[in-house]
Amino acid sequence: MRESTVKVLDDKDMEFVETLRSLGVPRNVSTLITYLANVDEASSREIEMGSDLRQPEVSIAMRTLRENQWIEEREVKREGKGRPMKVYSLRAPIEDIIRHFEEEKLHESAQAMESIQRLKELISTS
Length: 126
Known about the structure:
The protein is mainly α. It has helices spanning 11-22, 27-37, 44-51, 55-67, 94-124; strands at residues 42-43, 71-76, 85-90. The protein has a domain at 11-92: Winged helix-like DNA-binding domain superfamily/Winged helix DNA-binding domain (Arc Repressor Mutant, subunit A, Orthogonal Bundle). It contains five helices and three strands. Helix 1 packs across helix 2 (27-37) and helix 2 (27-37) packs across helix 4 (55-67). The radius of gyration is 20 Å and the shape is elongated.
């Protein structure tokens, strides 16, 4: 049996997760982004163990990261038989991911302000 170490999220990482969540980012996506930002690369199993996410949660979160082109994935052949193992890393710098959420919130805020302005216009013409 081989010995390996898996990084786990600490209190500062959990604060990062919770701050992403406060922006409306789903828990599993927030956790996955935070975990991958702290490692060079990780297998699905390492992500599950280190982030305390279940396999289906990792898969669902990966879909979001793939859609945004934030993830790099490669296959690593295992010893013996069986399917290759997928290894993941962030393709985008964490600053770019944060910028994405910033732009999303700025856009939402601008839309809300337009709606408020329109409401003011509607009551002033009554």
